Amino acid sequence: MENSVKVFTQITDFLDYLGDGLALEKDLAAGLDGHPKFPFLCSKHYADLIKKAECPMALLRQVLPITEENKCVAGFMDDPVGDLPAGKCENIIQKYDGRALVVSTATCGIRCRFCFRRNYPFQNIKEAAQQVSSWLDEHTDVWEVILSGGDPLMLGPGEFRDLIEAIAAHPSVTTLRIHTRLPVVRPDLSLRHLELLQHLAGRFNCVLVSHVNHPDELDQESATFFVQLRFSGWTLLNQSVLLRGVNDCATTLEALSRKLFAQGVLPYYLHQLDHANGVAHFEVDDNSARELVAKIRTKLPGYLVPKLVREIAGEKSKTPV
User: Where are the beta strands (DSSP E) in the chain?
Assistant: First the structure.
């Protein structure tokens, strides 16, 4: 595979790149779905992380489609967190008072198999910045805007700047929050926004929430991005999803919190799995989840222990588990 390749869209190409030295565990090999309904996408950077990982299967499980995703499981649905009823216009979701979430793009740098929006009717909006600006004109009670997606850092530099300027034109918005997985899956695309992001800390209270689930996802490239943002004045938090076969181990969670902190990021949330159709095989039961958090609490200072929560559709906040 040529070095110029940035993403893999074909599973065979991806596995060829990983090479014969990485044998899939039996359940992955036997259950591999070559034609998934939720299409496969993995960045070359993430494939390189898998190659050098201490626990490569933990990363592989997050990106390889398996046939279990096709099972219908009671209690799992297309819109598990109530995004659609909370939609205010084509690209804005509002669930909580004073805050609004912008679905800034339909594009991601990777397709995580546990994605809670895997069945969301995404579309890229041509006039996204204008729509956001018009909506904020009418909602001056909103003080925090959250950029999500997709992944907001997948936007081109011009689109991203236009969206930021549309938000900044509203003095009622004092906090900008960005949720992204790009620092660990496409750091090259994260860095192209770095100069603008560094200047934003003088215009907003800026919060970046990274999505990192395993310590092997963090490397020197993620550290470079995080450290530069932190020194420019950003608050850096991380939220993880508790995933069976990925990070359902106290030792792994402890290592993740410590490695995040070494890169300037504080653990924030450990999410129980959102019940989206196709992800049930990742679920960890609540009692096991509580036991894991209790174990890491004995090993780490309180500021490195993430809050165990779940999102319940219609509730006005995350719910502690």
Answer: 7-8, 42-43, 87-89, 92-93, 99-103, 144-148, 175-180, 205-211, 235-241, 266-271, 307-310, 319-320
Whole-angstrom CA distances from 184 to 147, 208, 215, 243, 269 are: 18, 13, 10, 17, 18
Q: 147 with 282, same domain?
A: yes
207 in a structural domain: yes
Distance between CA atoms of residues 112 and 306, nearest Å: 21
Distance CA 163, CA 196 (A): 12
- SS3 state at 93: strand
Residue partners of 134: CB distance under 8 A and separation at least 6: none
Write the CB contacts of 106 (distance below 8 Å, at least 6 apart in sequence): 122, 123, 124, 149, 150
User: What whole-number distance in Å separates Cα of residue 306 and Cα of residue 176?
Assistant: 22
Q: Could you read off the pLDDT of 45-66 as tens digits, one per residue?
A: 999 999 999 999 999 999 999 9
Contact 49/58 with Cβ under 8 angstroms? Answer: no
Write out the residue range of the structural domain in which residue 39 sits: 7-70
Rounded Cα distance between 60 and 158, Å, is 33
What's the number of domains the chain is made of? 2
CA dist., res. 321 & res. 311, Å (int): 10
Contact 182, 190 (CB under 8 A): yes
Nearest to 221, CA basis, from 57, 146, 109: 109
What's the token pair of residue 257? 């919190």
Q: 143 and 217: one domain?
A: yes
My answer on whether 56 and 199 are in the same domain is no
Q: Is residue 273 part of a domain?
A: yes
Residue 51 and residue 113 in one domain: no
Residues 62, 118 within the same domain: no
- The 10s digit of each residue's pLDDT in 197-248 is 999 999 999 999 999 999 999 999 999 999 999 999 999 999 999 999 999 9
